[in-house]
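Materials and Methods. Structural model of DUF397 domain-containing protein. The 71-residue sequence of DUF397 domain-containing protein from Endozoicomonas euniceicola was retrieved and submitted for structure prediction as follows.
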Amino acid sequence: MNAYFEDDSHFKKSLACPPCFNVACVAVAISPKQEVAIRNSGDPHKTTLVFTRSEWSAFIKGVKGGEFDLR
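The predicted structure was written out as tokens:
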């Protein structure tokens, strides 16, 4: 994994995530190489998923298109 993602300061949480939900929020970071990482902000082991920019863009397109809406 990219060492850039080992620094917690690079990760940002949504403003919609209230402070009481620290263990249940998704945190996102984008490296200088345009890799996108996501993880649970409360994960003590810092389990991190890393995606290419094109993979992330495809995911965002699917979200906006309703592809992942609960039925």
